[in-house]
Amino acid sequence: MNKKILIIKTGALGDIISSFHFFFTLKENFPDDEIFLLTQKIYKDAVEFCPVFKKIFYLPEGFNFLKFLKIIKILRRLKFNMICDIQGNIKTNFYSFLIGGRKRYGIYKKMIGRLFLTKGLRIKKRRINGKVFYEKSRKSIFEILGIKKYVKELKIYIPEEKREIFKNFIKNNNVNENKKWIIIHPLTTKGYLAKRWLKKNFAQLADKLIEDGYEVIFVGKGELEYVNDIILKMRTKPKNLVDKTDFYNLCLLIEKASLVITTDSSPLHISSIFGTKSIGIFGPTNPEKICPKNAYYIYKKVDCSPCYKKRCKSMKCMEEIKVENVYDKVKEILKDEDKYIKFN
Question: Using an 8 Å Cβ cutoff, are 260 and 277 in contact?
């Protein structure tokens, strides 16, 4: 009889995308078992067509205790043979316990989280500049399970109908199909303001790239005013698709682009999967640990690096990254590229 396995992974988008390594590796090693996923509804587009999962369950949006209990009851009835909590916080450790899998494996930050797991590995704790930070390692769960065969190739599944919709999306937004596209994503997860490069720098960089003949496209979600402020500082006019793209359109823009320039955020991971050249602008976080191996990055280490702060008054590390640093890297990366983006 097939076993039932539940994976718990609740965010953020970049982590969800990088977790596809875990999803496919688990399926490769348990090919005959049914694998389920518990995540948040905001990540539905990223996971809904993934062939690994028998079914995906979504936590209720906001604080809705009754809906939460309903989801837990449904999951309990499935009687999972194994639960893998790769999110690794106290809440998800507790979810594992409530759902009641026979074996509950996972990572955890604090010892109380360990109490909810059959077997777990503590996330490495580091102290930097007097503050405590945690470093996750999903491979540790593979070690618990005795897995040695890993799936390295990642793929985002996009239905053909989404590709047809994308063609109309491009036309409706007057994106020039006969120019090389450079995608700029200046935003970060809400609250992580220290990861953002200066607005004036993004504006100056975009001007230079447009003057070089590229189609510069700004993307992002939820902070249109922030990006509008960047564009107001520009001499030229880019394409502004902030708040206009769904997950699939964002992925297809990145797939068709010549280059993506982004902060330490999900477009860097999406670019990595599609094989699109990308530059990550890093400040408070360490690119040697976070940046995908096939991506480029700009990083200026200062006396407090890496601090992993969400907010910073001085923004010293970002101040050190000059427009010329990023522009020169762009020209270096694209120097041999002579093709234009065209649709078949």
Answer: yes
